[in-house]
Amino acid sequence: MPQHCHCGRELCIANLELFKSLSRDLQEEIVDRALHFEVAANTNLINEGDTADFILVIREGKVKLNRFDAEGKEYILDILLDGEIIGDESFLWTDHFDYNATTTTPAKMCRISKAMLFEVIHEHHEALPLVTALIEQLSARLHQANAKIQMLMEGNGLKRVVGFILERDRRLNGAPIQLSLDDIAGSTNLRRETVSRKLTELQKDGLIHRSGHKNLEILDREKLLQIYLET
Q: What is the CA radius of gyration of the chain?
């Protein structure tokens, strides 16, 4: 059952772009009025069509956003990690979620009501930077969505895989990428076997290093970018 959020000394929203411009007091008020819960892997957090009256902060864990077509084929829209937000796009352009959100690992979440955030903005003039931060974040999200559309339009499988790797690397600030072949295949709309072959090629060329089933480290970003731009 959800409980009042207790994130310890490090508030779950303190370092998020959306909230970090707020004072500590306002951050604590938002966190105190949020709900905290823990879930197992493969838990449905959101179903397509659910009312979008909240956002979710991923304190720990991994969450997959996806849709299914009429034939049941899965399309992975995004895979979110620690410190990322689910549902912020609903502040501007939708009243319902147009995707599913499912945990792929055990996760710790904070659920924040949109109505509560609007109350905070209305009651505290010092919360107005939240509006600016929200617009900036949504602009970044739109840019990211457009970049993915451009990537999926590419007919070259290698270019899709390289483009996806570079985008994940940018979002992770160079940290190792922890995604399975199925995750990458679903995100690039390629067959699992195709993704495996392309990653093997990149590793043989010394551009990436793979360890285990989910760990991928970039060794030569400049060369990968060259492949993406020239292929």
A: 19
Residue pLDDT, tens place only, 6-45: 555 567 788 887 888 888 898 899 999 999 999 999 999 9
Compute, in degrees rounded to 10, the torsion defined by CA atoms 115, 118, 122, 125. 150
CB 99 within 8 A of CB 48: yes
Q: Is the dihedral of CA 26, 12, 45, 35 positive or negative?
A: negative
Structural contact between residues 110 and 7, judged by C-beta atoms closer than 8 angstroms: yes
Residue 222 lies in a domain: yes
Residue 149 to residue 124: CA distance in whole angstroms: 39
Domain total of the chain: 2
Q: Do 104 and 135 belong together in one domain?
A: yes
Tokens representing residue 42 in the block: 């493969």
Q: Which residue do the tokens 């929203």 mark?
A: 13
| 92-140: pLDDT as tens digits | 667 899 999 999 999 999 999 999 988 988 888 888 777 777 777 777 7
CA dihedral for 176, 181, 183, 187, sign (positive or negative): positive
Give me the domain span that covers residue 42. 24-147
Q: Tell me, what CATH number does 59's domain have? A: 2.60.120.10
User: What is the amino acid identity at position 14?
Assistant: A
The model carries a pTM of 0.77
Statement to judge: residues 109 and 141 lie in one domain: yes
Confidence band for 53, pLDDT divided at 50, 70 and 90: very high
Q: What angle do CA 178, 19, 59 make, to 5 degrees?
A: 35
